Each structure stands twice: as C-alpha cells, then as structure tokens.
C-alpha cells in the first residue's frame, strides 16, 4: 500500500487511479495458475510513475539479437524461476536483470496483481502493477546489453483514447521504420488463433516514441488503464461476435 504522505504528492487524477488499482481484486480462480508448469508461467512489471500530473509506464524495446520477439516492445518481465516467492518477485527480479531496477528499491510500491493473459506461445503471463514514487530512479536505469535495446516510457491514458497521444512530442514518424502505418496513433487487425479453434485475436498497436506498443504488451496496458481510469477504450476492444476477455484462450492453452 502506498503511504498517504507519498500519495499526497500526486495529482488528484493520478491519486484516483492509484487508489482504484490498489482496491482492485481479480477473480481468485483466474489467479490460480498452479496447475501450469514453471516453464509455462511468466510475470511482467507494469511500472507506473507520474509526470506533469499524468501516469506513464516504463517500456523496453527487446534486443534484436533475441530468438523470441526480437525488436518488440515489452514490459520488463520473464518466466517464473523456481526460487521466486511469488509473481511479484518474478517481475521485480526480471526488471532488475533487464533494466537495472533494484529489487529492494524503496520507491517501488506494488499496487495490484491482475488476471493472467496468454501469450501466442501459450505462456500464462501475470501482470504486476507497481508505482514508482521517485521518478529520478528512471535516470539510473540501464538496459541489459543481452536483452534490451532501448528503455522508454508511454502515457497510460492514451492507451484508452489514442488521440490523447497528440500531446506527445517525440512519437516516431508516421510511415517510418518504427510505425509503418498510415493511422496516426492506433490501429488493429484480427487474425485466427491457431491453438484456439474458431477464435479470433484482435491485435492492437499504439504509436510510441520507439517500437510500437502491441500484442500482449498492449493487452496488459489496456486492462491496466481500464481499471485505473474506470472506463472503456474509445476503439473496438474485441473482435465482433466473440465474448470479451481471454477466458477462452486460457482454457485452450491449458488443454494444449
């Protein structure tokens, strides 16, 4: 829990988001992924901080040398280690390895653990949402040469209303290498899921200051923002004629 003396330093809007996230309680059954082997479980850190009265999130561009998801935007995180105490331990340990965020940093406050999501490789990924109360810590972060090419941040609220990203001064050029689309801030496309028969996945992409925020990372941030701001996206979140959510994917992944 974020102590009141720290919370008082945030804008009213950010305080409301932080308090809402702290109160959030996901379905306990969805959190129970103990039946999955450690090799199929992972956690990511959604590290929020405030800048100019608005919440932003820490992101990375994965190294192009990696075998999986090279060059993709990612939240710090990775697979569960048998020595990890819980998913928060996993997320923080991986963040230290990838960007140099000290596991014992007193400025990092865990806010919530969200429902797991399923990656395209059928990993069960649990988002751990945390608050960085001292943004100067960001200046000390260094990308792991083996895993991360770039560290950057993105505002959280434009994940629900992409037009709000118009206030960002350093977005990559439209039509350039990092945003090869004509859409100004966001686009999406639907494609079948090979391991979930007759189901469709809607891929969301957001233009950023670096690589596009897309796929599982965008799914996690959309859900985080929905909870924090207590509102829905301005765009079509889910494919037509399909029940909202990833329950079907979770069940299908467990069956494989």
UniProtKB/TrEMBL annotation:
GO MF terms held by the record: coenzyme A diphosphatase activity
InterPro entries xrefs: CoAse (IPR045121), NUDIX_hydrolase-like_dom_sf (IPR015797), NUDIX_hydrolase_dom (IPR000086)
SUPFAM superfamilies, per the entry: Nudix (SSF55811)
Domain Nudix hydrolase: 39-177
GO BP of this protein: coenzyme A catabolic process
Name assigned to this protein: Nudix hydrolase domain-containing protein
Organism annotation: Athelia psychrophila
Classification of source organism: Eukaryota, Fungi, Dikarya, Basidiomycota, Agaricomycotina
